[in-house]
Amino acid sequence: MKSTNLSLIAGTVALAAVTGFAALSAPGDADATGATAATRLPVERSSLLCPAPGLSELAETAYSSYTPASAGGGEAGTAELKPSVPTNADAGDGTTAKKDSKKKAADSDKPVVSLKEPGKPATADASGSDAPALVGTATGKLAPGWTTQQTTTVSTGSSRGLLGLSCTGPDTDFWFPAASTAKSREDYVHLTNPDDTAAVADIELYGPDGSLKSDVGEGITVPARSSVPVLISTLTSEAADDVTIHVTTRTGRVGAVVRAADGVTGSDWLTASVDPTGTLVLPGIPADATSVRLVAFAPGEEDADLKLKLLGKTGAISPAGHEDLHVKSNMTAGVDLKDITRGEAGSLLLTPAQSGRATPVVAALRVVRGSGDKQEVAYIPATGPVGAQATVAGNRAKGSVLSLTAPGATGTVKVTASAGSGGGERTVKTYTVKGGTTLAVTPQVPAGLKGSYALTVETESGGPVHAARTLTLPEDGIPMFTVQTLPDDGGTVEVPAAEQDLSVLDD
Length: 507
What we know:
Elements: H1 8-19, E1 38-42, E2 45-50, E3 60-66, E4 79-83, H2 95-107, E5 113-115, E6 122-127, E7 134-139, E8 147-154, E9 161-166, E10 173-179, E11 188-192, E12 199-207, E13 210-211, E14 220-222, E15 227-231, E16 243-251, E17 255-262, E18 266-270, E19 280-285, E20 289-297, E21 304-311, E22 316-317, E23 324-327, E24 332-338, E25 346-352, E26 362-369, E27 376-381, E28 390-395, E29 400-406, E30 411-417, E31 423-425, E32 427-433, E33 437-441, E34 447-450, E35 453-462, E36 466-472, E37 481-485, E38 492-496
Antiparallel strand pairs: 1-38, 2-7, 3-6, 3-8, 4-5, 4-7, 8-9, 10-16, 11-15, 11-17, 12-13, 12-14, 12-16, 17-18, 19-25, 20-24, 20-26, 21-22, 21-23, 21-25, 26-27, 28-35, 29-33, 29-36, 30-32, 30-35, 31-34, 36-37
């Protein structure tokens, strides 16, 4: 009698689907040329981290969690975001303080937002300055493409503004151009650790003249399942308007995001730029932007010379007086592009000035709308294309604009507006984006919408398309807004196909 044991290939495929590792191989996978046949499988586990939403008692925060409806992903699974464990849970000698710490620690196991099914958003709300950072995990069918939008409104004070971000996954390396240590700014790096052991992070700062001296940015401990905010102006005595932040970890992994605040233009979240590369796309500059500032950084040993192009509705133009940008090695360069869009929504494309000489850079935009005491700020980091699929949640019946840009060849994408969190039917529409242009559209709202909804963008054909969503919620004459980019969600991983049966047969 013969019995078949578990195939090694099957185990490899399962590991790739769970962890997201793509570079897996086994004997017999490669052909004579070394090429490997592969297939794509949905991930079975995802992590998201949302920073503490604000420092103001007036802060009102809305969460919208969503996973696109698609086949695959294994079991039904769960998707929950829970409060991080307070870092001061063991501090204090008084009985009341100890009881309060124990209560906070116990509350950290209660989900703030819990997603039940793909294709329908789940929402939650929080108020005040003590709303915690959130740590979340999705499994099974809820894991591929899982996203959560955190949107905070602060009406007055130094934190005033509409602060929005798509909660980030953990990593070990982050770049944040467009930060600042100027006296007018109050920029915090929020570090959140999703794991059960402490992480250790380093924060490096680079200004226009190079590295900003700091001894206290090294070896920052982030306790298990906790969040630590770091005011970057306390890491150095040097004040600089344009600063690039580099966050790395020595041990463990963290989620990192910057909350940038200015007394005149308000505040918003700055998320990490795409990894250093020679060509960058920064999509979604609003048509009515009154001020746009580009900040770039070259982390390598060589200077970078870049060409700047604004991709608008009808084509690409070079910004007058700012056709080129020279970025010195390990120095932050900033350039004021003013009202570059001139009433027409656009995206910025950075390419090497000399063909065949691509120096890796990172970049971000600081965008202002309004004037005088009615200004509001948002940040747009360089981002990758939507790829197979990208999603942004937290859209309302009014106030959303989706910007689609094709920096090279013409591309076609499918945009799905999900069912609402409280009801409504999803809608689907296809858009073709001409090469070298930006197409700004008002998404088709789901029929019978109740609550908020998500937008999912999928590449159908043609060249790569980059995307960003602008969410606008005007208040007291201030054009409050926030911009979220839509890079590929990594909901699937490439897994080598089995070409040889490695199962062991017993006689």
